[in-house]
Amino acid sequence: MWLAVLIVGFITGITVYLYHVLQATTYWKRRGIPSVPSSNIFTNQLDETTSYDHPICFQLHKWTKEFGPIYGIFSGTVPELVISDPAMVHEMLNKKFECFHGRRSTPILRVIENNKLSHLFIVKGARWKRLRTISAPIFSTGNLRRIVPIVEDSSTKMMEFINLEHEKGKPFNIHPFFYEYTMDVICRIATGQKGSKQFENPNVAMVTEVFKNIGSTPFERLSFMVPSMIYPIFPMFMVYSLLTQSAFYAVINGIRQAVEDRIKLKESGNYKTQDLPDFIDFFLDSIDENVTDGAFIKNNAKVVKRVTTEEIVGQCFAFLLAGFDTTANTLGTTSWYLAKHPNFQDRVYDEIQEVCNTPEVTYEQLGQLKHIDVTMKEVLRLAPIATGAISRECMESTTLGNIPIEKGTNVWIDLVTLNQNKEIWGDDASEFRPERFFDVTTEMQNANVNFGAGPRICIGMKLAYIEEKIALVHILRKYRIVATDETEAKLEMCGRVVQHPKSITVKLELR
């Protein structure tokens, strides 16, 4: 009797699940939107959307060539829309931000986002607005001006290591030097690290491991295949993470210890705020363990400028990750493009010689380095870095163009296609020509979303530009970056949310 009940129950469960799968995977067909076919209805395009070695941004570009600027995919059984139409991208990121204020979410993230540690880059709604408002002064012009000497000092230290490598007289992978440099800067300005610790900072290896692990666990894959079972799956995900992702918890615990030590020091009355407060100091001035968030209202000017201790830890963790990887990757790809285009590198050098006439680079000089500015923009156009960070989740049912979008739908932006759209960038869209950014049209401005756009544009964009410009000034003032037979014929990128070059092999020649 009980065996029969179990068999019937099992068959019923399988039948219900198969019905759910078939309903989910015909989602786009029922809406008249083309979708990428698959031979496996349980995973569909999940292997592509979670691949580390073959970033999804390049696969989206291939699919767009076949299916057009608007089509659907399925991460497991989760339907997601892909767009590269510039008008729709602008509409989503700007005009209808109140309906798309969340970043693309996964079933796991939809549970994690309510965690006390959750940070600016994954939270949504009123909590996002509160954390964004509190964090904004950190990146004000006045504070960035005060940060420049620290960036300058870390850049000088980076040059000492680069000089030693140059003395070997051989081509080398320059990318790790940028990793050390950007981690050095962010640790000093975020958590109060004293002095430079390049090539002695354990955070470099640990954070690199964190990025590699994002989206890689079997339970994250399972949650895409059976999203309705996310709450039974989530505890297993947490246990698995505790057992296998020691780097993540090591970084978190290190930041938590720094925050707790600072709180105790302040409470003792023996702490004097530094001339340049780090991120912890900024946040501690707004600490409140009982803060709550109401409903999200885009134009509501009243925001409670308070933050909990755990949110301080989460914010510093997020800035550590974001400030380390993306900036280092951009410096790496920029070095590759300058090596491949020596004539434009000469123009950048000439401008540096004209503008930077003091040993140390000043904040005022950075604003005059127009050729470096357009170089970085062109590099990001051709080799976008944070392609996963600009995609969105629909928070309220609405339309994009004339397409109805249901609440909860993820919308990918095919950034590679958008960045090579000849109608926007010209017939030479696939070529490296930084000069195009000296004469930017409205269409180019709206399509240039490599840092995001609208209210959720990258909060640390100006800091990233400062770090990149100062590093390039110091390198190019002394060396010519040269491509050799060992230099990669084309950029090989990997990563999930953020893409990074596998290596950047160049040779440095003294000027």
Automatic annotation (TrEMBL):
Keywords: Heme, Iron, Membrane, Metal-binding, Monooxygenase, Oxidoreductase, Transmembrane, Transmembrane helix. Heme binds at C458. The chain crosses the membrane at residues 6-22, 229-252. PROSITE patterns: CYTOCHROME_P450. Its cofactor is heme. GO terms for molecular function: heme binding; iron ion binding; oxidoreductase activity, acting on paired donors, with incorporation or reduction of molecular oxygen; steroid hydroxylase activity. Belongs to the cytochrome P450 family. Cytochromes P450 are a group of heme-thiolate monooxygenases. They oxidize a variety of structurally unrelated compounds, including steroids, fatty acids, and xenobiotics. This is Cytochrome P450. The lineage of its organism: Eukaryota, Metazoa, Ecdysozoa, Nematoda, Chromadorea.
